[in-house]
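[job 4471] stage=fold_predict status=RUNNING
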Amino acid sequence: MFIGESNLGKEGEALVREFYPNASSVFWDPGDDKDEVRKFIRSNEPWDLTLSFYSNLVFESKDLDCMRLPCNFHPSSPQVPGVGYDTIPLVENHQKNAATAHFMNEDIDAGRIFRVCESRLAQTATYLDLRKSNQKLVLQVLRETLEEISALGSVESVKKKLCSWADELNLNWGSTYYSYKDVRRVLTQLYEKQPNHPVFIGNDKFKKASVQN
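[job 4471] inference complete, writing structure tokens
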């Protein structure tokens, strides 16, 4: 099962269908009714392999109970759990940005990490530059994962392969989780001091919210 949002989700779905032509898929965007997507998820017990891609849908325990192997493809490095992927690396002057593939559990962005794709983040990078790079990387980490696991015969063999990658990486998540509220607070404080910071260049969502407030 593939789970995505309208933003980049179609690209992710097309990629999955290259390797799993009969995969089921469901889309959910922030603000949409969650009941319908949860009904779909819980309509089949269990889904062998679940790929949550570039999605902010938070899964409940009953959702995860319907997934034998739930995986998420997160558009940032393990340093940035949560929704700060297009902003925090710029605010904190990270040298690299990344996309992270990991197992899902009831905690958000906390499961074992089994694959990371990185790119050097230019000092001149803006919000739009980072966003485009993150999207490219999350598609890359999805493709690389699919290329490795699609030939494996069972969900048990896939899980074994992914666990071996996780053992080799031995990576931990960053200690600071960024919610929408956290990101908003960080950006508001920065905007008061540096309104021309690269994180605000092309960041129409923040500017629009600032005007409304």
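[job 4471] summary: The first strand starts at residue 2 and ends at 4.
[job 4471] exit 0
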